[in-house]
Amino acid sequence: MTWRRFSALLLTLLCWLSWGGPAWADWTMPLSYSNAQLKGRDFSNQELQGSEFSNANLELTNFSNSDVRGAVFSASTMTQANLHGADLTYAMIDQSDLTGADLSDAVLVETILLQSTFDNTDITGADFTDAILDGAQVKELCQRASGVNSKTGIATRESLGCR
């Protein structure tokens, strides 16, 4: 790309931004809650794409119907968290404790879930399409997988590849 073309593109972008810009220019920096104590907090119905919650205490936290695509929950305690209907596409929920959590009707497409714990987790209608899980996790989840995701129309058993 020539300097003249680059300058013209940059000038166009600056003009768009000064006039309010295109819809895609209305963005904010993701929030960081790493290492935070967030027990019982209400994040329901929020736009939290790309936010970071790694190594956080999210026990009893409410993320129901929130957009947390691409969020990072690595090594977090998420016991009894409410993630009903949350969009967790591309999220990282590795090494997290989801004991007693509600993942019903959640979208977990291409989510990394390695080494996470799912004891007594409600996965009714959750969509795990192309999620990264280890074999033991899939076996455990298939034992109680049921329902169809209301947003994607994919059955939980199908998304996990249950036999």
UniProtKB/TrEMBL annotation:
<protein>
    <submittedName>
        <fullName>Pentapeptide repeat-containing protein</fullName>
    </submittedName>
</protein>
<keyword id="KW-0732">Signal</keyword>
<dbReference type="InterPro" id="IPR001646">
    <property type="entry name" value="5peptide_repeat"/>
</dbReference>
<feature type="signal peptide">
    <location>
        <begin position="1"/>
        <end position="25"/>
    </location>
</feature>
<dbReference type="InterPro" id="IPR044213">
    <property type="entry name" value="At2g44920-like"/>
</dbReference>
<dbReference type="Pfam" id="PF00805">
    <property type="entry name" value="Pentapeptide"/>
</dbReference>
